[in-house]
Design brief:
Undecaprenyl pyrophosphate synthetase; 6 strands; 14% strand; binds magnesium ion; globular; 264 residues; 6-stranded parallel beta sheet; binds 3-methylbut-3-enyl trihydrogen diphosphate
């Protein structure tokens, strides 16, 4: 490490520490979701292949998971591969699947050491068998951990999830388990892949794109949205702290007016 690198690293760590200290631990979002975007552009900017961007993004996943767990966030959900991402060139899809497998293998010890439970949402049946088997094994191996739930959205899209829920609901109605007039919010929530988690309160998207790309459309009904121009491989602990500080400055009214809210 050069002296300049040492100084930059030290300045970064100090900045992260001072941002972390400003966070009000009493008002943390319980669930943070991230659309990890910009790996390809990050790599291309430096003349490298898109796949190098995906590989580099793994460090950002580590930092996001570590910092969220350290703060005391209970649920962190990462959009890692969408239903639509299957339409990318085969070489990129294959590289992403290999990277997923390798990352699970490499990180399982750290997940257990940090008491983090791994979870996955999405059409897991569409993943290659080796990936699915390893993923399910890792989920099983971390199932006793209770500090934070780290959910990977894999082969996930919100419309896929809603269609699946609609199908299950149709079966319940056809079987007479449920009457059409009994269908309410709770009924639908129970049929979503996120049935056992609270809705995300903060949704972060990196890479400067202002869109949701078919992610948790039902669950983000009242999420605070935070967009950063940083590409995912550049996302560091301090970026998560900044997003949370920004979240803590917002007034969440849920349809009411300001005066009705219980202010501290
Ligand atoms: C996000 O980065 C990772 C996945 C969608 C798998 P991208 O691969 O979308 O990178 P950009 O947006 O093309 O730069
Ligand atoms: C969204 O990113 C999906 C993930 C981050 C996994 P994309 O790069 O696929 O989204 P679009 O195509 O720019 O909307
Ligand atoms: Mg993208």
């Amino acid at each position: 490490m050069t002296w300049t690198e040492f100084k930059t690293g030290k300045a970064r760590a100090e900045n992260a520490m001072s941002l972390k200290e400003k966070i009000d631990i009493e008002r943390l979002p319980q669930h943070v979701a991230i659309i990890m975007d910009g790996n390809g552009r990050w790599a291309k900017k430096q003349g490298k292949h898109r796949i190098f961007g995906h590989q580099s993004g793994v460090q950002s996943v580590r930092e996001a998971a570590e910092s969220a767990a350290e703060l005391g966030i209970s649920y962190l959900t990462l959009y890692a591969f969408s239903t639509e991402n299957w339409n990318r060139p085969k070489i990129e899809v294959n590289a992403l699947m290999s990277l997923l497998l390798q990352t699970i293998n490499d990180e399982i010890v750290t997940l257990n050491k940090n008491n983090i439970r791994l979870n996955a949402i999405g059409d897991l049946q569409s993943l290659p068998k080796r990936n699915r088997d390893r993923l399910l094994k890792a989920i099983e191996e971390t199932s006793g951990n209770d500090r934070m739930t780290l959910t990977l959205a894999l082969s996930y899209s919100s419309r896929w999830e809603i269609i699946e829920a609609a199908r299950k609901l149709a079966v319940e109605i056809a079987n007479g388990q449920c009457k059409p007039e009994e269908v309410d919010q709770e009924c639908i929530e129970k049929l979503l892949t996120t049935y056992n988690m609270p809705d995300p309160e903060l949704l972060i998207r990196t890479s400067g794109e202002y869109r949701i790309s078919n992610f948790m459309l039902w669950q983000i009904a009242y999420a605070e949205l935070y967009f950063t121009p940083k590409f995912w491989p550049d996302f560091r602990k301090e970026d998560l702290y900044e997003a949370i500080l920004n979240f803590q400055c917002r007034e969440r009214r849920f349809g009411k007016i300001s005066e009705q809210l219980n202010k501290k």
